[in-house]
Amino acid sequence: MITTNTDRPAVLEVRDVSKSFGSVVALERVSLTLHKGEILGLLGDNGAGKSTLIKALSGVHSVDSGEIRLDGKVVNFQSSADARSHGIETVFQDLAVFDNLNVIENIFIGREESYGRFLGPLSFLNRRKMVEQWKRYTEVLEVRIKDPYQPIGLMSGGQRQAVAIARSFAFAGRIVILDEPTAALGLREKRNVRRMIRRLAEQDISVILISHNIQEVLEVCDRATVLRQGRNVGECEAIPELQEHIVSMIVGASAAARHMDHRGPAQ
Ligand SMILES: Nc1ncnc2c1ncn2[C@@H]1O[C@H](COP(=O)(O)OP(=O)(O)OP(=O)(O)O)[C@@H](O)[C@H]1O
Ligand SMILES: [Mg+2]
To answer: From ligand 1's centre to the CA of 42, what distance in Å?
Structure first.
């Protein structure tokens, strides 16, 4: 079991971020820190604000207040392409791929304008290299994609998810954010994705993994942070001994409340 990487430099710092949709408060002064090469599990019940938070981190949503820092500098991403250009790759829960485009088009969607700043110009050679890299990842994930030129809408849910995951791994710069990446995958593919996440972290890429599967979080993540009703309720090492504690934070049992009273909110 790998212990926390919290002594390593912070790559991403979220401070007091709030976001409302009309009268719905999705995030209320949420903070988190992601360190270099760390795998952070982001947990919480349905509607806790997890997807909203990662959409704010990846340029899909602007925030109402608060601050996001990347390598210590305040950032204000205007779009997901903008976030990508800063090395943040995200696999969204709901917008993972575009069904009407083929696999290759999906790999490069929105990338032409964004590629430049962080990784250099997206030349023909670079494109070929990225496709090869992406292919290698699909092979490692043991996902068989017969024809990369067929519309992705004709593929199974698991295959589509695998295309998006392999894409994020292939382009990973600083941070990979995965929102329920393994939900539609078979057992073997799930195992491969977890292994790949570990490998990314070994290469100093930081990962945020959203998952409802607590076993998966305990197996893959270094640390877990929990949201409930749009707020931070605590964080801890992702170790089996703390499973019950993590569950109680997610569901808001009195045990979690006692813990918070005792320790104060997580920093
Ligand atoms: N675009 C939106 N417009 C209006 N309300 C939204 C929007 N996106 C999210 N919300 C609301 O914000 C709250 C947080 O939603 P969010 O999708 O972030 O939850 P989640 O933790 O990702 O849940 P799940 O585990 O079900 O994916 C919910 O009350 C949701 O209805
Ligand atoms: Mg969600």
So the answer is: 14
